[in-house]
Amino acid sequence: MNSGDKVFCTYADTRLKGTYITERDGKAVIKLDSGYNIGVEPALVEKSESVPAKHPEPKKIEQNEKLSKLSIISTGGTIASKIDYRTGAVTSQFEADDIIRAIPGLKDIAFFNAHVPATILSENMTPTIWRTLAKTIYDEINSGVEGIIVTHGTDTLAYSAAAMSFMVETPVPVIFVGSQRSADRPSSDNVMNGMCSAAAAKSDLGEVAVVMHATTNDDTCAIHRGTRVRKMHTSRRDAFRSVNTPPLGKVDYPSLDVKLDSHAVRRGTNEPVLNDKLEEKVGLIYFYPGMAPEIIRAHDRYKGLIIAGTGLGHTSSACIDSIRELCENGTEIVMTSQCLNGRVCDRVYDTGRDLLAAGIIEGEDMLPEAAFVKLMWVLGQENDHDRIKELMQTNLRGETGGCTPHGL
Amino acid sequence: MDYKEIGLKAGIEIHQQLDTKTKLFCRCPTVLRDTAEKNGEFQRYLRATESEMGEIDRAAEEEMKKQNRIYTYYAYDTTCLVENDEEPPSPMNPEALDLSLTIAKMMGMKPVEQIHIMRKLVIDGSNTSGFQRTSLVALNGKIPAGARIESICLEEEAAQRVEGDTFSLDRLGIPLAEITTAPDMNTPEQVREVAGYIGMLLRSTGKVKRGLGTIRQDVNISIRDGARVEIKGVQDLNLIDEVVRREVKRQQSLLYIRDELKKRGACVSEDKFDVTELFKETGSAILKRAKCILAIRLPGFNGLVGYEIQPGRRLGSEMSDYAKKCGVGGLFHTDELPAYGVTQEEVDKLREFVSAEPEDCVILVADTKKKANCAIGQIIKRAGMAFEGVPEETRKMLEEGSTAYMRPLPGAARMYPETDVLPVNITGKYWDSLSIPELLTEKEKRFFEELGLDPALAKNMAYSVRCTLFERAIEEGVKPNLAARTLYSTLRELRREGIDTKSISESDILDILKSVEKGDTAKEAVPDLLRAVSKGESVTDAMEKIAPSISREELTEMIQNILKERSDFVKEQGMRALGPVMGVVMKEARGRADGKVISEILKSEIKNML
């Protein structure tokens, strides 16, 4: 029996007509003509002679070449997801074209070039794919597009946005967008996020940003800086928040009016540069009370390690020896905070001073994830400890700043 | 009318809210709230998506015609992110599954081996997700009232409309059993009888919600040469047969119109006329205000657009229902003009302008150009359908039992799998473990035959929401009559007095009844005690205040005093004095002693006196 075969099934003394979907947990799953699926003993199902219904051909997308040109680069994720017959779960299998098809309003905003460098669930993202993505973005910038939209799974979207911020210098907007609710539901946030990201990609912005719902309402999307954004909720549509900085701007929906804040980097400020060297031997750990020093020692011979410490940036005194050993062996250790909001300062308490003496670098007000990709990138360029320290504490892509804004 | 002769076929779908602790796909309580208690609101857009078969449902497509599909939702401290469509659903509530399968078992159905949860596309705003979760749980049963039961589905209740495009999330997600019968019913009365029986059966579980809106019936009706029409949301069982009768009349009338149109050689002209100028100086406020007035001519339709097809409804009303989908308020047709401020002179000018012959009908719509254009298109569409007779469609019930067009009948394309909830296997062992509750009809019989309640009280008690409490009281030694009268009559009387009987807890009622049985208080004191408890007093305090128990000696002394004061009367009347004196004693005792005991003492004291 194949998916889509027309079948009969005699069940509960009734001859039921339906379509064979798949076999799962030892049961044949049938879609009855009423639309309901049920699972029955496979032996009860017989193939019908009738011809299976034809699936409608996907509609051809007609784009308007007169509109400004944008690139849409798909890496997979919920915004590009569809039900999988085999598992019954949602998987990423859309291509960029399907996104334009799924969001019909897009074709009135711009003419899109579509690229699919990867089709993955975002937890499967790797530095190798980052390199491919960076190259694709760079090539698209050079081809003269007005802006770029990268569709991405939301779980690691912030990491990728931060990585691209360092790997590609861009004169045009590079907008990361995703959706929290799958594209096959009438309430999906993919339409509004997609439309707003296209508007942002045409705006006066000139940096890597993330565009997602600003509130639970379908009324505004926030534009977040790629190095300052974090997913703060597992499922809400307004999960993405800027940390330690206000958002770069907002896009109203459905008007698609874009308003940029004064601190947003403007279009054309930078020249396109691709610098995709990354040191992959970098770790990121979360300190917790009672953490065994072995966990830190396990990162011996890593080129870099980010610790999300407590409060102002601490670990227990018990961990300090192991940290010192690693630093002496050449591992660059950068201290950030689990608090996320606020700045690290290891000069207030004894432990902090001990950590500084052991050789850690204060991670300023960087998010641990942003510090992580930044360290990978810095280590890809530099070997000298002082130079590495200087770069880690210098604002390169808006990931850190001299003044910490008030308010959470 | 001979309904068999005209080929009436009717089936029903009963939607019953289940009284479970939590909702079907989240752990929020199943309580309804006052909208004033909302603690948040948000706005969302909905749009139609393709099913897993790559099709868009026709009913959803129709809904997409609506210009502005933004909806507002009210949230509460008893709703969560699942209702907000911002969190994946929890596994299906096992209590609701138990209950729906128990109902299936009561109707002799067979459970589905593996239940799959589906999403049924509904983008009218009543579901935040744009779909309703539903699953087929059992198939093929039969009930004594004579109908086959095709299926039972367990689904989530939709959000309740507050007004317009605003919905309240409290009701969303309450488990709902949907029971579908085969189209086996051939008379309106049979429909009512079957619906009544299923309702009784559902209530027999003791775990269904009661009250207005907790049970809704959809009726599917067709007659020979007619078409299947689904009438949504009949809430009142007493109207269900009338709904069927009126739908039969409608289908017959539409068939008459069809034949008449064919006889006349009528047709639909698609020429649109802009007649805005014609009504520049009109006395009709609606037309005068309109930015654009469009007209069409329906050759051969004269008199038929205004033909009554149901009480208060004409073919024109059906066309108007279609037009309203475009956001216009309605239409005017020459079968009803001159009226609404339009003069005969204007009608004549209009007819002349569109070159209408006497046998033609002219239809007008007035609104913005865009809306009027859309509405004219819909009217042309519906006029064309008049040649087919009865269109298949989903209709909504109006007051009194007539109906109006809602949307086309949805197809299977509106269903696709709910990917966030795993299928549920129903094992034989689980199915066998479900026990069937006693039917209310059996209960009624038992209360009459075994407990000695009079027939009316037996029925009232069996069907009462307090039935479980009644049975518990009997189990704990309360006499059936006392329990039934208190729980049915006394509470009802108190409610009529305006007392909030809902605030009296079941255990307080039980305590009061038990104290009567123990002789600690008299049954006459029960209403006063319940009154006091409803105001927040404890049972003990209330008894102390209202009915401090009185000893047999005290009672005897009281009776002797009363008799002494009336000795002349007693001597004159003899035992006949019992009745009148009884009243005096009862008043004096104020419920502190049982009537039977009083009567016993009184009798012997009168005897002594004589």
From TrEMBL, chain A:
Entry-linked SMART domains: Asparaginase (SM00870)
Give the record's GO biological process terms. amino acid metabolic process; regulation of translational fidelity; translation
Q: Which residues form the active site?
A: T78, T154, D155, K231
Signal peptide span: none
Write down the superkingdom of origin: Archaea
- Record-annotated L-asparaginase N-terminal domain positions: 69-258
Cite the GatD N-terminal domain residue spans from the record: 2-42
Residue ranges of the TM segments: none
Q: What class of enzyme is it?
A: ligase
Q: Can you state which reaction this protein catalyses?
A: L-glutamyl-tRNA(Gln) + L-glutamine + ATP + H2O = L-glutaminyl-tRNA(Gln) + L-glutamate + ADP + phosphate + H(+)
* Mitochondrion keyword on record: no
**Which InterPro entries does the entry mention?**
AsnA_fam, Asp/glu_Ase-like_sf, Asparaginase/glutaminase-like, Asparaginase/glutaminase_AS1, Asparaginase/glutaminase_AS2, Asparaginase_C, GatD, GatD_N
Residue span(s) of domain Asparaginase/glutaminase C-terminal? 281-392
Known EC number: 6.3.5.-
Q: What does this protein do?
A: Allows the formation of correctly charged Gln-tRNA(Gln) through the transamidation of misacylated Glu-tRNA(Gln) in organisms which lack glutaminyl-tRNA synthetase. The reaction takes place in the presence of glutamine and ATP through an activated gamma-phospho-Glu-tRNA(Gln). The GatDE system is specific for glutamate and does not act on aspartate.
Listed under subunit, the entry gives: Heterodimer of GatD and GatE.
State the name under which the record lists this protein. Glutamyl-tRNA(Gln) amidotransferase subunit D
Which organism is this entry from? Methanochimaera problematica
Automatic annotation (TrEMBL), chain B:
Q: What Gene Ontology terms describe what this protein does at the molecular function level?
A: aminoacyl-tRNA ligase activity; ATP binding; glutaminyl-tRNA synthase (glutamine-hydrolyzing) activity
The EC class name is ligase
Q: Which reaction does it catalyse?
A: L-glutamyl-tRNA(Gln) + L-glutamine + ATP + H2O = L-glutaminyl-tRNA(Gln) + L-glutamate + ADP + phosphate + H(+)
Q: Which UniProt keywords apply?
A: ATP-binding, Ligase, Nucleotide-binding, Protein biosynthesis
GO CC annotations? cytoplasm
Stretches assigned to the Asn/Gln amidotransferase domain:
468-606
Q: Which GO terms describe its biological process?
A: glutaminyl-tRNAGln biosynthesis via transamidation; translation
Q: What is its EC number?
A: 6.3.5.-
Q: Which Pfam families match?
A: GAD, GatB_N, GatB_Yqey
Q: What does this protein do?
A: Allows the formation of correctly charged Gln-tRNA(Gln) through the transamidation of misacylated Glu-tRNA(Gln) in organisms which lack glutaminyl-tRNA synthetase. The reaction takes place in the presence of glutamine and ATP through an activated gamma-phospho-Glu-tRNA(Gln). The GatDE system is specific for glutamate and does not act on aspartate.
How does it associate, per the subunit comment? Heterodimer of GatD and GatE.
Which family does the UniProt entry place this protein in?
Belongs to the GatB/GatE family. GatE subfamily.
Protein name (record): Glutamyl-tRNA(Gln) amidotransferase subunit E
Q: Which gene encodes it?
A: gatE
